[in-house]
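Subject: design request, 99 residues
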């Protein structure tokens, strides 16, 4: 019973991140940089908070994603931000869940 509660909590945390990814991507696609960057910052904090739920290689992979996002942001490339948070980040999180 306790293990299923932990798994449920883990799934809820990950689902919340996936919803946040969609939200950031939508803001980026709508062309609203300030709103996108604000929500992106909150999303990154949330992803860092679930590191213990992901395998040990994820922080290194996340660092690369973060570097890409900073580059996209410095170039004000909202479309690449949308692609990164809506496709790459969720698939990497899914791939690196602790089994």
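Subject: RE: design request

Done. Sequence follows.
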């Amino acid at each position: 019973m306790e293990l299923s509660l932990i798994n449920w909590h883990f799934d809820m945390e990950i689902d919340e991140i996936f919803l946040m990814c969609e939200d950031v991507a939508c803001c980026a696609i709508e062309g609203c940089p300030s709103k996108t960057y604000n929500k992106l910052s909150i999303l990154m904090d949330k992803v860092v908070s679930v590191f213990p739920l992901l395998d040990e290689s994820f922080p290194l992979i996340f660092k690369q994603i973060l570097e890409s996002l900073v580059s996209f942001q410095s170039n004000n490339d909202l479309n690449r931000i949308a692609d990164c948070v809506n496709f790459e980040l969720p698939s990497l999180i899914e791939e690196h869940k602790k089994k």
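The chain has four helices and no strands.
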